[in-house]
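DM from R.C. (forwarded with permission)

"hey, sorry to bug you on a friday — could you get me a structure for this? deadline for the figure draft is monday and I only need the backbone to look sensible"
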Amino acid sequence: MPDTSPLRAEHITAGYSRTPVLRDVSLEIPRARVTTIVGPNGCGKSTLLKVLARLLTPSAGNVYLDGERLADLRPRQIATRLAVLPQNPVAPEGMTVRDLASRGRQPHQPWYRAWTPEDAKIVEEALQATGVQALADKALDELSGGQRQSAWIAMALAQQPNVLLLDEPTTYLDLAHAVQVLDLIHRLCRETTRTIVMVLHDLSLAARYSDHLVVMKDGQLLAEGPPAEVMTKEMLLKGFNLKAHVFNDPEDNLPTVVPAR
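My reply, with the result:
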């Protein structure tokens, strides 16, 4: 039977030094959907994302990319199929948006092959898809936070991955810019049928922009499924020790979290 999940973790235990952060975590990421991982600080969200990206080697368990064991793949094989955008990525001073996006082509360029018109075409398409084509010749440090994040996503798209991992893509952004970035992520998933996994802190935004929600607590999975089923008062109390009201907004019928006074 074919593997229907592009990215799958089985019985993962992982951490730093000898201290496990994740304990026996198994997870299947739905194909061509936005999956968001939420949970209180220190629960293992970013650690799980690092294991899925092979940035951290688990002490037990395996991750599978399109049915192949991630540990058996060469770095270039992974980089052409999976892209990861860490928290607070840093680029050299003065780098332009186009230069940054062009770096996404590196996994597709062996040492003996020069830059090609096809590479240039893919970069321009990535800039256009993320709405930063008009900013292509501007330096990253001249852009707003939302524009910079869109430029980094353009680099990831130029990598042409089937799976995109985003670790807190709205960190340090105000609400308007956070919504701008999440609108972009949601649209890219719909238009390109890529599989997107991201870590978020804002529960209402996570429910609004996700097809699949994963809730973590103390290094384990507490709940997962469609946001309308997962985002409940009971889950918030158990997972976050948060007393809150959960209601569907009248326009989009999506779960909204309001802390109880």
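R.C.: lifesaver. DSSP finds nine helices and twelve strands in the chain.
me: no worries. The mean pLDDT is 93.
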